Amino acid sequence: MPAAYSLVLALIVVGPLLGRGYLLLRDAVSTPRSYLTDSALGLGDAAPRAVPQDALIAMLSPVVDGGVIVKAILVGAIWLAGWGAAVLVREMLGVSLGPQLVAATVGIWNPYVAERLLQGHWSLITGYAALPWIAVGSNRLRVGPRSWTDWGMLAGWLAAAGLTPTGSLLAGCVALLLASRRTVLGTAVLWIATSAPWLAATVLSGAGAEPSDPAGVAAFAARAEPWLGTLGSLAGLGGIWNGTAVPDSRTTPFALFGTVLLLALVATGIRAVSSRLPSDYTAATRTRRILLGLAVIAVLLPALGATGWGLSAGEFLVSKAPGAGLLRDTQKYVALAMPAYVLCAAAGCRVLAGWFASIRDRDDVARDRVARTGGVAALFIVLTVISLPDLAWGVGGALRPVHYPASWGRVATAVDAPGDVAVLPGGMFRKFRYSGSAPVLDPAPRMLPDDVLQTGELPVHGAVVAGEGVRATRVEQLLLHGGSAGELGRLGVGWVLVERDTPGPVGDSKTTLEQLDSIYSDAHLQLYRVPGPITEHAASSGARRAAGAAHLLWAGLLCAGTIVSLWGSRRRIRSRSRTRSQSRSPE
Q1: Residues 278-315: pLDDT tens digits?
Q2: Helices (H), 120-164
Q3: Nearest residue to 241 via CA among 189, 153, 191, 306
Q4: Are 162 and 195 in contact (CB under 8 A)?
Q5: Per-residue pLDDT tens digits for 10-52
Q6: b/e burial code for range 151-177 (CB count within 10 A of at least 16 → b)
Q7: Phi, psi (5° rounding) for residue 228?
Q8: Does the predicted TM-score (pTM) go above 0.90?
Q9: Contact, 138 vs 154, CB < 8 A?
């Protein structure tokens, strides 16, 4: 029942997206087909932020449409977030069906999911979904015999979370904090192995190991929502840096009402979660307390990071420590509060049911509490949905499929020779007529079979956060200043794509384009070939083999962990069925 219920909620959330078309919203870009370029392996000029997700889709999209793959992963992630929350509270609290459904609702129906959907962070939601499952697996390894099925479950979920580097960090934090002294080494080895694609890419490309622009710390700091302040916004699982990537209800004083509702439900169960239950193992109590403490830290640290001295500390860190740019979007890490929130909401449901039963003059308070738990659970579910009413149906219709012009497929076919692709207008974000009013990442890097140069520069709040793409920046400046075709060739550029139906800077690029050979042109796109010799700037074969091996290791752990988890779940279901059958049979 929790699995079916969570699937229904997931379909309600992403419903409009399930029609024909592709997800293209802010940072989310799905395309019919993508390619295993150097950038997809994390070996490009910019930091490997989309590793291994890009390589996974590049490997699967020749068989299954890339848009279908992304939609399936997104629906699966939201579904598994709710189902995992239900499994977590069942194992950690021993609650009945009603509180499990409350946990599933809180795990899915909250501002964090809404805001990350609107920002286009579909792969981050996969890491978010893995957190309750990782907590379950870590607890099983702590309290029982360390079976290969439990290790396999942990490996599979760490790999699933590792679809993006931030998801991997979230998962590793939960797994390592919950590991016992006897399991911490094995957990660390699994986490490093499942992080192999982005770790290898960082070492091999060097882009991710460079210090980041300090301006990104303030630009991506957590944001206060109406009447809440930064701390209140984060406690309500909101506060994303982008004020345009929030549900409409979070832009009005209703945000205060919704946050109070959510926190009130959570508050009812804090004491029960932190206390030792009569049937508890000591390890189970410790696990719940660790998750509670982690939730407090996950809210407080991003709030502190948005203060003056917190911003100063963050700027110092990212400018001095290679790879620290992963930490600049601090609101991402509020996801770590989710396991504790669902535990508290489920426990509070049972606590209130017991309280209502105790105030009546009944002989059998326990039986009355069980009878009332379903009603309290229904109330909790309704209040959770009311706290964020516009999450339904694609976050108020913002999630909807788009349809690319046929020009993209023709251009992808026309790019039939080596050489990187430069794109005009300048910048990484676009506003197409067919994609809606929100800016979207340029789909060219995932549409074309050759590497598309990207500067990594991000426009935020009217300013620009510098990226890592040094060669891409040189190429863009060369085009905007009307440089020579020969210089483009020396920089490794074999093609120039002009996207005609989006605004953006083009500078004096007409001077450069006149020196190139026009290959394809229509109302949407124009493709040019750079004449003359093209200097090779591709990653070495050794780097590609090493990055490929890291991706294969990750994929192997994901597949093996999934199979082992399914096998272990089947055994557990059979064991519970036998136990119930034996308890019902007469002695």
Answers
A1: 666 667 899 999 999 999 999 999 999 999 999 999 99
A2: 122-143, 148-161
A3: 306
A4: yes
A5: 999 999 999 999 999 999 999 999 999 999 999 988 888 899 9
A6: bbbbbbbbbbbbbbbbbbbbbbbbbeb
A7: -115, -30
A8: yes
A9: yes
